[in-house]
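Quick one:
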Amino acid sequence: MRVLASQGPHKQIYYEPREVKAAIVTCGGLCPSLNDVIRQIVFALEKYGVKNIVGIPFGYRGFFDERLSEMPLSRRVVQNLNLNGGSFSGVSRGGGKVDEIVDSIQSDMIIIKYGTFAVFESFLHDSLA
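Output:
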């Protein structure tokens, strides 16, 4: 049985916050309060000292569609995000090849991923093992 590491605050920080690039990606369609989740993740990251926070537009598509650019996120950008419906970064379902997505993540040196990406990362790890 595979056990995933728990999410949320930890006693020990494994990366230097000023050197971290954190990416937030939303995938698989809309769900209630998604913007509030994005907002709270940005708040928490900034509290830890992370300055390089980006939103990946339109789910996994944002990793491989060259017409789409990362969206810089900060407290100022997401301050009132919880007042809007939908997803600030947009969503899409599927698409893209796993190797294209992984190449994009590696080339952009993304260290911390949030959202459904943790599920994708687990799937990727299991499928390549």
